[in-house]
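WARN retry 2 of 3 for item q-0093 after timeout on previous attempt; input resubmitted unchanged.
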Amino acid sequence: MSEAPANLPDPRSRIFARVRAALEGRETTPHPGRFGSWKPLSGGATGDPPTGASSSSSTEPIRDGSGAPRDASRASRAPTEASRPTEAARSRETLLQELEHMFSSAGGRVVRVPDLAGTAEWLVRSAARYRTMVVGRGVPEGILPDLERAPAEVADLGVSLARAAVAETGTFILDARDGRRAQLLAPTHVILVRAADVHATLDEALRALRHDLPSALGLHSGPSKSADIGQVMVRGVHGPGEAVALVVGPTP
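OK item q-0093 returned
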């Protein structure tokens, strides 16, 4: 077998040369920069409509935990100076309401608990429905119910800790290091997130995590749903059919 001439470029160099030749003279598009919100939050991040938007731009009412629409006229009444929340508190409450609305609209459920003690109480009370569970590595052991631990592929319940949440899409950002099987295989998935880790947009959430990123992040926006076959919506085909988010922390 004869050898290639010594002056012939190697295959890798030839491929790159062809790519460079194809790109020569082609018009370039500048980087668009930071991506923002794909839609305005209900009432804006500080309770005011976004610039250029009317105060009635959102036609879908924000609902409370029972599913009933909140009284818009009551929400618009000006509080007394003594009870007026700070700008940060009003912004936080808006984000939590938007997160609850979006996640619930996708078929999930959001429960607010004041602290880890409240989280433990809720988990213990809800554990009666299950026999076994799998737990993410970041979940504090002291809050967990007394259920038998089982491999993720056979566990009834999965409990995970989210790194952050995105209000505008109702999305919880889960770290692969927490254990992806616990996040994806159990039929019921409970996600814990600190109220302080809820951000308005995906851009803001990712920037908050940028100094400690894992090999993969999971974006969970509700229970698993699919309508691939016959356009019939079925839950739990590719992941948990029930998703519950516990937002941990004091609220205004």
